[in-house]
Amino acid sequence: MQPAETIGKLPDFHFPPYITLAHMFNAPKGWKIRDREMTQFVLQYVVDGYCRYPVGDVPYETRKGDLLFHPPHERHSILPADDQPYICISIVFHFGASAFPYDDLFQNRHLLGNFAGHPVESLLSQLVTHYRQPGLFHQIQCQSLLMRILAETAQWGSAHNEHTNTESQNMPKLVLIKNHLSEHYDREIRIEDLENVSGLTKNYILALFRKHVGMSPMQYLTRIRIGKAKELAIQSNLSIGEIALKVGYSDVHTFGRMYKKKTGQSLTQFCSNLIYS
Questions:
Q1: Recorded GO terms, molecular function (predicted)?
Q2: pTM of this prediction?
């Protein structure tokens, strides 16, 4: 059915967007749709389970919380796995003769993001509930909820892209910080030094390290020092006190406590194991 043909059948909708379907669907075993083309816009939200959802020539694998969007006349398939459930919310809508600038809104994205536990998930459920109720009030609620969903997902995508771009631009600075720690492990290093080296704030440096290194910069520095101490113990005849100085500790007792805490044994025990194993 073409969009213009639906308007006369939807007397409660006095202005766009015109919603022609909003339901939650539990796919029965073996159910699939292949190479379908809709004449309207579609939002497909995975409530639970897994589904392959190729749109045109782009394959998508969707899981709980994923929200897909595609405009009219895009060939797509819905292919749940035989051994997993697939429960989805489908919203089908159009804007009549009015153009909808979806490219500007979603930047040519089909997979809008994962919204499990996000307010968008609740908005989708509310839309389905109102759609099943008769009357102008419920229809206006549906339209309002749909526009909020489109706005929320567009804003989420914009913020996500901005964060990704910013992080991508700062990855060389993360490498710069790691190199600084590797090259200057034998001296005192403070977080302020890393701020000066990179031009990043303390909180951003900590966040980058947690995400991409799995530890704080100072934990990373400690790991470097332990590795260097082991190298010196193996490759030289230096005393424990001399090794401590070489890896940035002026006090041998502080070094010894740190080393044993992190490795479970003293550096002397480490050397003994090398000699007698």
A1: DNA-binding transcription factor activity; sequence-specific DNA binding
A2: 0.56
